[in-house]
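Lab notebook: predicted structure, single chain.

Context: the supervisor wants predicted structures on file for every construct in the current expression panel, including those that have not yet been purified. This is the next one on the list. No modifications to the sequence; it matches the entry in the shared construct table.
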Amino acid sequence: MAMTTCPNCGEQISDKAKKCVHCGTVLVPEEKKCCPDCGAELEEGMDTCPKCGCPIEHTIETEKTPQQVEVTGVKITKKSKKIIVIATIAVIVAAIITAIGVQTHKNNVAAKAAAEAQKQSEEYGTNLNMAAYSMLSGASDAETCGNLIKQVWYNAIYEKSDSKTDKYTKPKGYYVSDFNDALQNLFSDSSFSSQIADINDNKDTVNSLMKKLKNPPEEYKDAYESLSKLYDAYISLTNLATDPTGSLQTYSQNFNDADNETLNCYNALKMYLEE
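Prediction complete. Output recorded below exactly as produced.
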């Protein structure tokens, strides 16, 4: 509540006062009542207009009370309760079945993935063994051919007679004048050329297997590294057998080195191979 000053006596009064309590000055004029028929001014408390006799009705303001709305409760019967319980149980059961189905699907997918990984691992192991043993077989054939090449080469240069090389070094009863002729006679021989063809076929097989082994599973990475070293040595050895070049001395040295390296690499790989 705020205070104000009476305009007549200057005393402090409430700003809501209708007249000054000190001097009686009316601050808020009271609303005058008039006759509804003739408009004559009426005094407070009159029941009848003194001019025209119109009865005056006095209205009493009453607080409006809010309308009460009665909410009728919903009655749940035993049958309804039973239906609700059954529906709730059905929803729970459906949720459980769905959860079991989802988990079963996940388990099946995981099992399938594990089975596929196991299958791929087994296939990789099989191919790795095939590659290793194919290299060993090809290296053995290359070793046989390379030793014969060295023998023919040597006997042609130094004119050494040997039952295995005479038909290449002296096909007409006397030694050829150039060792290259002796090697040409060797590679023209049907039996020897068949062995060379087998070595080349073996290399094709090995190369095909190595392509399949390019991306090893984690458990085969060490084995693949050892296999790759064997492959490098094997290629050097077989190339020397199928295409001899250089001098007899350099060829013999290179061939012996490749032969020994192939054997060492195979021995290092054996720990990863299945018997």
